[in-house]
Amino acid sequence: MSAESPQPPAVTVENLTKVFKAGLGKAAFTAVRDLSLTVNDGEVYGLIGPNGCGKSTTMKAILGLVTPTSGRTAVFGRPSTRVESRSEVGFLPENPYFYKHLNGLETLLFYGRLCSMSGKELKDRAREMLALTGLEDAADRRVAGYSKGMLQRLGLAQALLHRPRLVVLDEPTAGVDPAGSRKIRDLILGFKEQGITVLVTSHLLEQMQEVCDRVGIMAHGRMVREGRLDELIAVENETELVLADASPELLAEIRALVESRGHGARVVRSGHPRTTLEKLFLEVADQ
Amino acid sequence: MSASFSLPRIRTLAMATVTQLLRMKIMAFLLVFCVIVVAAGFAFPVMNPEQQLKLLKDVSLGALQLFSIVIAVCATALLLPRDLEDRTLYTILAKPVPRHEYLLGKLLGVLILIGAGLVLMDIAFSGVLWLRQSLVLAQSVAALQQEGTATPEAVAQLKEFVGRQGLTWNLHLGVVAIFFKAAVVTALTLMISCFASSTLFTIIIAFLVTILGHGQGLIRDYFLTGHAGVVKKLLSALLAVVTPDMGVFDVVDNVINGETVTPGAFGFMAAIACTYLAGYAVVSHLLFVEKEL
After folding, report:
1. Of A253, A249, A246, nearest to A271 (Cα)?
2. Is residue A3 part of a domain?
């Protein structure tokens, strides 16, 4: 009887260090220092941090686009330095550009062929991806005429074309309007439902909060905090109670109850919760 | 699981390169070439028949060489830096595409474009040359008849002479030699673009090395037989090593003068071209595989 080998994590980064050599007379630049992280199969992992903290370099190392100075990276157990590791990965770079001479459909057919897809299967899948990303009407337009948001969606379509098990998204909402941004958020939530693993970076922390299971916070090339999102952002000594249609009398009673039987507990604040500017914009735009 | 060498993937990259270059209107060169050929074919009608045909061959094959070298350098120099700047390279190499396949696809794409361009220009050139040759023959026979010297022997001699100076298979071998030279320049330019920091740098260095390559034989001889100082010797040795011997492919003048390219000479050219292509492709891969994106 043979014991089943455990499923390898979607992404493994072990003690990754990346030093970029500089020109003559200039000091080398260390973009990532001794970074370790694991992205489990089926989860949405957010990598956040200020500009220049090493997020993109980490992603490139995972994709085999840069070679680690030390340490190792692997995708589904396969070292990133091997081409095979990319067969189950879809990648959306920050502000993607595509061959301007191709139209949307041709672009997807080009990337599909690179993934060894062909014939009717490829054409059908390309059409499906154009529909999923809302680019059906622009399928025959040259990519040169696409807006930033459309390029981003086309980038997402090419990343998903070959049914990857892992999707790596570098700033997927950069330069996209709130409606487009919301659409991308919904797509990420859809990936989660389908069991697709997502590794995402973004500066829109509110959106990251909505989609991520776990996050890692990077600064100066290092991982400074990592963990489950709900654990990281929970304020341990506070409890939130949200009431709908509560009368002033009821609120006064609750306050009195807390003061009389609270055993040291106190009301920190009360008032109307605020909606977000994004939600307000979307409601108004929908109207 | 993806194979580490896939011909369909290389073909996809090559055809994308061809389409990219075609849509950059790079083949407008063809129109310019046709105008030059037609102008050369029907200009200077006062020249003698030999000079007329020679001029046509001279100008046309010269334009073919210019076209192929300029396309080889400029088109190739644009490809890699543009993909890098536009970050198209990220999305391509993030797919299961080995870097050597990407390079081979780009190289093949430029070679297909140059090859197709040369075939089209060769057809245009051959057509004009055949027309001019027929016209020259008819005029010369008419002149002989006017002079009353149009004996069957004289007409046959004239036909043989014009035929030798006109359209022959040998001329097509000259065009193939031009393709070999352009292929070497393409591979050289691709190699330079793998380490160059800009397109302009690539273009300048590629043209410089190509020009020096035409005198590589002289540089080599200078190193082997010259009596210069150590510095000059070292410099000439370095130049002889880094420049391809373009003189090997210079058979156009011989072809224009009606000399025959022997199978041995043709085979030698082909072998040298293949060796340079393979050598530059291997060095390009070694440089590109280490490139940080």
Report:
1. A246
2. no
For residue B21, the chain A residues in CB contact (below 8 A) are none
Listing DSSP states for A151-173 in one string gives HHHHHHHHHHTT--SEEEEESTT
For residue B158, CA distances in Å to B13, B47, B90, B260 come to: 51, 16, 63, 20
Strand A89-92, strand A222-228: pairing = unpaired
Residue A69: give the domain boundaries. 11-233
Cα separation, A144 vs A261, whole angstroms = 67
**Looking at the whole model, is its pTM more than 0.90?**
no
Rounded Cα–Cα distance for residues B256 and B177 (Å):
13
Are residues A211 and A121 part of one domain? yes
Q: Residues B99-148: pLDDT tens digits?
A: 999 999 999 999 999 999 899 889 988 998 888 888 888 888 888 888 88
- Interface residues of chain B, partner chain A, Cβ below 8 Å: 1-2, 4, 6, 8-9, 12-13, 16, 19-20, 23-24, 86-88, 90-98, 290, 292-293
Counted domains in chain A? 2
**B29-47: pLDDT as tens digits:** 777 777 777 777 677 666 6
Predicted ipTM? 0.81
Are residues A66 and B4, on separate chains, in Cβ contact within 8 Å?
no
Query: And the tokens for A221?
Result: 């090339």
A43 and A72 share a domain?
yes
